[in-house]
Write a structure and sequence with these properties.
The protein is an alpha/beta fold. About 35% of the residues lie in helices and about 15% in strands. It has a five-stranded mixed beta sheet. The protein is elongated.
Length: about 160
């Protein structure tokens, strides 16, 4: 459908409009409540313990998962969808956009949180791509001005 062949809205009186609007608002509220219930159920899901020693490959070689926290108590791990064999400009558009928006990490660091990017891919390519997001060198989780990146190695 294009703007040229889009159907024209029906013209009605104020009372009919208000009735239709009230019905739509009731449906919207039900939709919101259903979404809230789903979100609450997600928050109540049990958690799975993760081995803190799982190796990730960073700029400085293998790194245990626990070290990616950079000495902080919380970790925001962004999983970047990686396209093997593609240059930085052809990696996931949404992931690239999201990570180029991170210019200053001191705010999250001041709240005892580390932000890191995880993805599957060759470490040298991942590091080069991460550097292209911010123009800064990744892999230094203790610096307020870098986005550390690690590759996740998975056995076949």
């Amino acid at each position: 459908m294009t703007i040229e062949n889009a159907p024209e809205p029906t013209i009605t009186d104020r009372a009919a409009f208000e009735a239709d609007l009230a019905e739509l608002r009731a449906r919207e509220k039900a939709h919101t409540r259903a979404g809230d219930a789903i979100a609450a159920a997600r928050r109540r899901l049990p958690v799975v313990e993760v081995d803190a020693g799982i190796p990730l490959i960073g700029a400085d070689g293998p790194t245990p998962l626990i070290d990616t926290f950079g000495g902080r108590h919380q970790l925001i791990a962004y999983y970047f969808m990686w396209y093997p064999g593609r240059p930085a400009a052809e990696q996931c558009e949404g992931c690239t956009w999201n990570n180029t928006q991170l210019d200053e990490l001191s705010y999250v660091h001041s709240r005892d949180i580390t932000y890191a990017v995880f993805c599957q891919g060759p470490t040298t390519r991942v590091s080069a791509t991460a550097t292209s997001w911010t123009g800064r060198c990744p892999g230094t989780p203790h610096s307020d001005h870098s986005t550390p990146s690690w590759s996740i190695e998975r056995s076949a």
